[in-house]
Amino acid sequence: MRRLVVGHLFPDYLNIYADRGNIAVLSARAAWRGYELEVRPLGAGAEIQRGEHDLFYVGGGQDREQALIAPELAALGPALHEAFEAGAAFLAVCGGYQLLGHFYRDQSGEELPGIGLLPLHTVAGSRRMIGDVLLECELEPGSPRTLAGFENHAGRTILDQDAQPLGRVVAGFGNDGDSGYEGCRAGRAIGTYLHGPLLPRNPWLADWLLAQAIAHQSGAPPTFEPLDDELEERAHKVSANRAETRGGRF
Amino acid sequence: MRTRFPLRLEILLARAAGSLSRLAGTGGGTTVPGKLLWKLDPAAVDELARRLPLGSALVSATNGKTTSAAMAAGILAGKLRLAHNSSGANLVSGVASTLLTARGAELGLFEVDEAALPELAHRLRPRAVCLGNLFRDQLDRYGELELVAERWRGAVRELPEDSALVVNGDDPQVGDLGRERRSGTRTVFGVDDPRHAHPALQHAADSKWCIRCGTPYDYAAAYIGHLGDYRCPACGHRRPPLDVVGREIELEGIERVSFDLITPEGGRRVKLGVPGLYNVYNALGAASLARALGASLDEIQRGLEAFHAAFGRFERIGLDGKSLLVLLIKNPAGANEAIRTLLAGTAPTLVLVALNDATADGRDVSWIWDVDFEPLLPALEQLVATGDRAAELALRFKYAGFDERAIEVVPELERALDRALELTPPGGELVALPTYTAMLALRNVVARRGFVRQYWEAA
Lengths: 250, 459
Hints:
The structure holds two protein chains of two kinds.
Chain A: E1 2-9, H1 19-32, E2 35-42, E3 55-58, H2 63-75, H3 77-85, E4 89-93, H4 95-99, E5 103-105, E6 111-113, E7 120-137, E8 145-159, E9 167-171, E10 181-182, E11 184-186, E12 189-192, H5 203-218, H6 230-246
Parallel strand pairs in A: 1-2, 1-3, 3-4, 4-12, 5-7
Antiparallel strand pairs in A: 5-6, 7-8, 7-9, 9-10, 11-12
Helix pairs in contact in A: 1-5
Chain B: H1 7-23, H2 32-40, H3 44-50, E1 56-60, H4 65-76, E2 82-84, H5 92-101, E3 107-111, H6 117-124, E4 128-131, H7 139-142, H8 145-157, E5 164-168, H9 172-177, E6 186-191, E7 218-224, E8 227-231, E9 244-252, E10 256-263, E11 266-272, H10 277-292, H11 297-305, E12 313-319, E13 322-327, H12 332-342, E14 350-354, E15 382-386, H13 390-398, E16 407-409, H14 413-423, E17 429-434, H15 436-448
Parallel strand pairs in B: 1-3, 1-4, 2-3, 4-5, 5-6, 6-9, 13-17, 14-15, 14-17, 15-16
Antiparallel strand pairs in B: 7-8, 9-10, 10-11, 12-13
Helix pairs in contact in B: 1-2, 2-5, 3-5, 4-10, 4-11, 6-8, 10-11
């Protein structure tokens, strides 16, 4: 069996919104395509070998956990930048999304360092944006898709000029409750506030990430045979409907 | 300006609304009168509580508050007339409704929602408060754990000087609240029985880092999630000395658990008619609270041993020659303990799991991915997934490696119950794991068929 290696950043600290659900979906769908997904936890002071990881995952954490690991993550910044330049894929959710940006400024004005891999920064607001979300996105030109999830964040994320959002908000708050956009995409890296977890009810994104991870090894993303995603589609539909009927309200 | 009615009139209006709610068939009227009273005059709750000659006691926790309060009520009911919100209506409106209907009560005994604790403590000026544990739960409603802990800290600081505070010392956040008290009595309870410790901290452990300095705690024993005997290797923050202790715990399947209850006044062997280590914690909280309110060791033992499951918590309901075992699940730590206890008996081959996402369940269903359902899988042959988020639940099992073909997705609860009962052999028992509103709906269906009393009629 061929192997894909995932670097899971600070899984002990950043796991608040069932991030292990995302990992379970990546593992299963990789296995169904003949790839063994090996997940290597990366904590403080981890050694990241050049080319070792095909995909990096960063989950969400509470403010306290985020503050505890932000400096440790920043120390891994240069190695992560190098991996990104070399074509590794990234998925960062919620707190992890914020820390992949330039910085996170909390309510007291204090700043947590980010690694600046995604072109954005985040400033804490006074009210949390909580609820179901529905996005429209087009990661591959000509194939528009939707993403359904749940958001719960006080941070307002502001993208740099020319940065590409992950999607357009159909229902929900998105990055800042204002711009009408959610998340950020830079090459093979995706950052988003959507949990739920994200991948079980949006399996196409799991497949896209796996294809990018394979491309890190082979140079080109493969085209997968479709799987039976009837349950996933049902769950997606319920979640999308929730967003349309009750998303984007405090 | 709000129009002020005399309190007597407000009470009459609110009581009438409760009767109407029952007549209209919209519910038990367990919160309607309180909601109305709250609208008419928020301070009426304070006034009603002041009429209780022996004052009020509050019980709060992420997990176990309903059971712990019911156990304390069982201990105290023999000697006092109680106003007790036994149906689980634990917001300000539920407490107000209980106060409205409990005429002639001497002591108020209220289970209180974690987020509602500061407000209720402020209004009721309680004589005693029992704080059990804090786990991640409904982040969409409560916000982050630290935030709830901070609000509790504020509430504890504001307690009347002579209030008795009872805390679970095994929870780092909660145990530390005892240190906020310089006056009044303070009781710390906890478990000492390393034979029942987990080999490692569970996935659902939340307070893993020293609340003072952020270093990971060393655990001499971890019992449930992050509950246990912890110590920070860097700054020395550790479990406080225990006043009321559970030792020599014997887990007896899904029927019973017994333990040595050790108090400063002496010890007793307590045999509970409900299962699981988590019920030892609930009993220790109830015993400590009852003790602070003047109950003797004999009364505590008698009350605990006479206790039967609070509704929806390991509740067994007979149904035409079959039985239904209902285990409420609502957050990772609580669900893990329900499953761990269930598996102390014969592992079920069929389960009915019901996932709703109403406000009371948590609109964010991501928590089911943090529950360890995996220990159920080796024996499981069939799953009936139901509730508004049945498909999401089915995915949780599919990606845990359970055969998709053995999952039936039936979102409509009553149909799902009938299907699962059909799959249950005559004389057999169906295990149901519902979230809160699904549990109420499930009991409602069963009650309509005449097998169980409506919740507002119970006890």
